[in-house]
C-alpha cells in the first residue's frame, strides 16, 4: 500500500455518529499518510449521488468545538502526524458567508484524499472516488496526481465502543455557569480576539486552543508568543525552540486552518501583553492553567478604563502515554523532556582522530552533574578522560605546564615543597581577564595534547567510545577534537544550591562562578546531545542508557563515513 506525505481527510458522517468511529478512522488514515493530515468537516455530504457536491457552511456549535477537541486528542496517539482541522467552512451564526468560493492554498498540498463516506457494498467505487477528488480539488490546492481512498470498511464497524452514539462529547469550553448547555447551541462570534502561549513544538493541545480562537474570531486574531523573561521559569528552557521558529510554525498552521482571518503574531514580554492594552479586543482564549491569568488581564483592563474581555476557558488535553516525571496533560515540557538523549544535529567528521575511536565531549555548567554522568558512561563501556586530572598532571613538578606557569606567575604561587598552590593561582587569575588568558593559553594546549595521548591509550585498550569530561570544553575549543558534544543542563538555581552544598561556598560566590562560564543555553546551541540530572538518579540513568543505545546505532555508520 502506498504511503503519502500529505493527505486530506473529508469527514461526511454526522458528528454524533462519527465520534465513536474516530479512533479507527485516524488509525486507518495514519497508515496512508505519514506527515501532514488536513481534516475537512462536511457532515451529511453525499458523495454517491449524481450531482457534484459543493462545500457548505457548518454551524459553529459547542458540539463542533467538542468534536475538534476529540479529533486532536485522538490524533495525539499518532504523533508522527501533523493534523490540521480546516475551519474555513465552520462559521458562527452571525457571519454565514459563501464557503470556499476560490481554491484555498495549503502549505502541504495533499497527495491523497481520504473519506469516511460509506458505499453500499464497501468497495473502492470509482464514481464516488471521482466525486471525492473533484470535491477536494474544488476546495483546496492538491497535488496534480491526486489519489483517493475510501477508508470504509477498513476502519470497520466492529471496532466501535459499546457506549451509545448519542453520548455527549467532553466539553471543550468550560461553562461560565452551572446551567446545562446544549451541544447544538451556536457559538457566538466576535470581531477581534486574542490568545497567548509559548507554543513550543506546536502540539495538539495548542491546536485546540488556536482552533477555538479561530472559530470565535471573524476578522482578526492577536496571538501573543511568550519570549525572554516569560521563558525563564519553563522546564528545560535551553531546549525551547527559538522565537522565530515558533512563530514560523504557528503562522503556517493558522494560515492553513483559517486564511480569511488577519493574524497579528507578537512577542509576549509581560503577563498582560496586548490583551491588557488593546481596546479593540473582545475575547481572550485561555486554558485551565492560564484562566487566573485571564482574570488578572480583565482586572488590569478595568483598572485602566477598558472593557472586560469575554474569557473562554479551554479544558486541557490528557496525555494518554506520558512517561514518568512527565505531566499527565499534553505539554511542551514533556516534549522537551523526550528530546533528552536524542541526537540534535549531525556528528562532526574527525578523520584526524584515532581510527576506530568515537570521541564525545561531556560538558555543562558547574554543579550540573558531569562527573556522575561520566561514571554512568564508564559503566556502559566508555573510556573516560577527566580534564581535571590531566590538569593536575600538567601542574605537577616536571609536568608539561609546571615551568611555563611558574615563569608566568612567579615562585610565590608555590608550596614549600615546590608544588603549585592552585588556590593562590586561582585567586591571582579570578576576575582578571588578562591573567586568566595567560593561564589558559598555557594550560589548554597542554591538556589537549595529554587528552590525545589518552585517546591513543584507549585504542590500545580496545575501547571504541571515549569521553572527554571537561567543564571548559567549548571555551577551550576542544569541540574540534570530538565527534559529538554532550551537555548536561540544570536550572541555575539548582546549580547554585549544589555548589554551595558541595564546595561550601556562599550563594554569591557560587553565582559568580557560574557567571564566569558559558550559560547552559550557549552550551546547548553547540551540542549534539543534551541530558539533565534534575530528577532522581534512576531518571538520569535511563536518559544516559537511552543516549548510549542511540549512540551505538549510529556508530557503525559514522565509522564507515570516517574511514
UniProtKB/TrEMBL annotation:
One of the record's GO molecular function terms: pantetheine-phosphate adenylyltransferase activity
Catalytic activity: (R)-4'-phosphopantetheine + ATP + H(+) = 3'-dephospho-CoA + diphosphate; 3'-dephospho-CoA + ATP = ADP + CoA + H(+)
Principal location class: cytoplasm
Enzyme class label: transferase
GO biological process terms, semicolon-separated: coenzyme A biosynthetic process
Domain Cytidyltransferase-like: 195-338
Keyword terms, alphabetized: ATP-binding, Coenzyme A biosynthesis, Cytoplasm, Kinase, Mitochondrion, Multifunctional enzyme, Nucleotide-binding, Nucleotidyltransferase, Phosphoprotein, Signal, Transferase
InterPro entries reported for this sequence: Cyt_trans-like, Depp_CoAkinase, P-loop_NTPase, Rossmann-like_a/b/a_fold
GO CC, alphabetical: mitochondrial matrix; mitochondrial outer membrane
Biochemical pathway: Cofactor biosynthesis; coenzyme A biosynthesis; CoA from (R)-pantothenate: step 5/5; Cofactor biosynthesis; coenzyme A biosynthesis; CoA from (R)-pantothenate: step 4/5
Signal peptide (residue range): 1-19
Subcellular location: Cytoplasm; Mitochondrion matrix
Pfam families found in the cross-reference section: CoaE, CTP_transf_like
Known EC number: 2.7.1.24, 2.7.7.3
SUPFAM superfamilies in alphabetical order: Nucleotidylyl transferase (SSF52374), P-loop containing nucleoside triphosphate hydrolases (SSF52540)
The keyword Lyase belongs to this UniProt entry's keyword annotation: no
The keyword tRNA processing is assigned to this record: no
Function summary: Bifunctional enzyme that catalyzes the fourth and fifth sequential steps of CoA biosynthetic pathway. The fourth reaction is catalyzed by the phosphopantetheine adenylyltransferase, coded by the coaD domain; the fifth reaction is catalyzed by the dephospho-CoA kinase, coded by the coaE domain. May act as a point of CoA biosynthesis regulation.
Subunit structure: Monomer.
Homology family: In the central section; belongs to the eukaryotic CoaD family.
Protein name: Bifunctional coenzyme A synthase
Gene this chain is encoded by: Coasy
